[in-house]
Amino acid sequence: QVQLVESGGGLVQAGGSLRLSCAASGRTFSINAMGWFRQAPGKGREFVTTINWSSLTTYYADSVKGRFTISRDNAKNTVYLQMNSLKPEDTAVYYCAVEIHGSSWSLPILERQYDYWGQGTQVTVSS
User: Fold this and answer.
1) Among 107, 103, 105, 69, which Cα is nearest to 85's?
2) Residue 8, SS3?
3) Rounded CA gap, 114 and 102, in Å?
4) Which pLDDT does position 104 carry in this prediction?
5) pLDDT single digits (tens) 76-125
């Protein structure tokens, strides 16, 4: 199993920045990709970004492209989500997730492709 713990959420004004962290523990050698999703009040969970663990290839949702950056610290088994130019519509609970069973080039964007999930961290952007 893989355990995930997110941190770094909070309240920020529109135009500001936040950096989320997701620390993985357990069978981290089995990680194929890590991703971030978010869920706004009254809405379903949506894909934000993902990073392939071995190739470091990344993929972003159009809504965050150019504003958010995903990165990985291999030594710490941690993935970061740097969020800049935040907008009120970015307000959501942000979840990190891990894909175990995937190809070496996998960039999963669907919830069902992920095997483990963190508990989520709240991000609130005020206007």
Assistant:
1) 69
2) coil
3) 9
4) 80
5) 999 999 999 999 999 999 999 999 988 888 899 999 999 999 999 999 99
* Tokens found for residue 26: 């357990």
The values of phi and psi at residue 100, to 5°, are -100, -45
Using one digit for the tens of pLDDT, what is the confidence trace for 52-85? Answer: 998 999 999 999 999 999 999 988 999 999 999 9
Three-state secondary structure call for residue 81: strand
Exposed (0-12), middle (13-18) or buried (19+): which is 16, by Cβ within 10 Å? middle
29: exposed, middle or buried (Cβ count in 10 Å: 0-12, 13-18, 19+):
exposed
Burial class (CB in 10 A: 0-12, 13-18, 19+), 125: buried
Residue 72 half-sphere exposure, CB side, CA atoms within 13 Å? 23
- Tell me 99's DSSP state: E
The pair of three-digit structure tokens given for residue 48, joined into one six-digit string? 């934000």
